[in-house]
Q: What sequence folds into this?
């Protein structure tokens, strides 16, 4: 009996994470027929209270453009220097909610991740905005709004 219970627990935990490759109008901030979906960094937060910055006060300006074909372009402007990263994206569902997963083509400074040199996760919050997960490992908190809404 314990073996069956353990088997169900393992299968249940494996099924709690699923990949959703559907990138159409059901995703946050997208509209039917829309060719691109652009997200703009609107706020950054440090690890201590009162360290939030927004707009031109932030250390850098950044956009993430999601193309309908499953590719993305991430652009960062910092100190008048423009950097660009590309790759593929998908929406994934974990036990604690939905995430936008960016799979960068190459390792770069633009990958805001705790666990991977090329994969970045951004949580889709209740309002449909994106929040970076980099803050969990002492990176800055990154907050994005959809500019197409």
A:
């Amino acid at each position: 009996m314990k073996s069956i219970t353990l088997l169900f627990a393992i299968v249940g935990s494996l099924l709690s994470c699923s990949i959703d490759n559907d990138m159409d109008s059901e995703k946050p901030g997208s509209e039917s027929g829309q060719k691109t979906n652009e997200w703009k960094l609107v706020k950054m937060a440090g690890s201590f209270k009162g360290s939030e910055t927004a707009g031109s006060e932030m250390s850098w300006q950044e956009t993430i453009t999601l193309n309908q074909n499953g590719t993305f372009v991430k652009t960062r402007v910092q100190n008048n220097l423009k950097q660009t990263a590309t790759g593929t994206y998908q929406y994934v569902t974990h036990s604690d909610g939905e995430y936008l997963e960016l799979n960068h083509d190459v390792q770069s400074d633009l990958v805001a991740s705790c666990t991977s040199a090329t994969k970045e996760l951004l949580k889709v919050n209740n309002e449909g905005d994106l929040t970076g997960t980099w803050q969990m490992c002492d990176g800055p908190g990154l907050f994005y709004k959809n500019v197409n809404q």
Summary: The first strand starts at residue 18 and ends at 20.
